[in-house]
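Ex. 9. Protein: DUF1828 domain-containing protein.
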Amino acid sequence: MNKVDDRLVSIFETIKSDICNLVEYRARGETIEIITQFTTLNNCVVSVFLSVKEDKIIVSDGGWLHRDKYNDQGLIDELPIVTRINTQIIEYYKIKQTQSKQNINYFYKTTNKKELVSSLVLELSQFIVASVNSRILSYSKEEDVNDSKKAFHDQVNGYIKSLFRDVETNEYIKVNEQYRVKFDCIFRIKVRPFLLMYISGSNNSVFNKDISQAVVNFNVVNRNAVADEYFTKIAILNTQAPGYNKAKSDFYLAELREAADMPLIDYFNPAELTLIENLRPKTA
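Predicted structure tokens for DUF1828 domain-containing protein:
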């Protein structure tokens, strides 16, 4: 068995520290596969591949998009991969492309700065999720499983807007020069931002995926926010979702508790909602 390049292990440890303790890796020749906590709509876990060539650090999809590693259920048509992936998604994430001698397309990003690799891993992972999900939604005739999740998000957003004035939903926040992170809801009290993530899911795998995404977002903020900015991070759980199973999600929920700044809030428990209501400025 080949020894894993010490440089790759060192970079991976930085990624794990920056993003999420749930991230793991697997040695694959001269590269390592980084197993992220991002998942697609068809419940595939996203992996990205890390390699070093001279002074250049490369984060790629390993050719998995081309080889349909994220979809083995026939949801994708027979068109070439370039035409299957929405051009706007590639442009939005500023993804580069190359082709191997075996005619396999690779999507990748590069940097020569170790401190930027975590950002590249996040961006490429989000690109893969967006690419796979867009193809599933385009070619699958199944009923959209996101309807119940959207209803929950709308319900919580309505509740938050009834309490606070300065509220934005599905909003990105720039935590420093490197990272821009999306939250389900952001509200501000006297300029101070409160960052909310909603946890729901049609099955336990999707529910745990929501937890993992919240952990990633909270950890990015925890470890990379500018020194003079303070964010309060809040997670709201849909305990009536079909995917909610406290026992099966216990490990993930423990990670979420550690990353959040307040106790996890069960939206359907009025006593726990008072934690949010008590944040309102007291009137004279």
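Check your answer against this statement. The chain has two domains: 6-139, 147-277.
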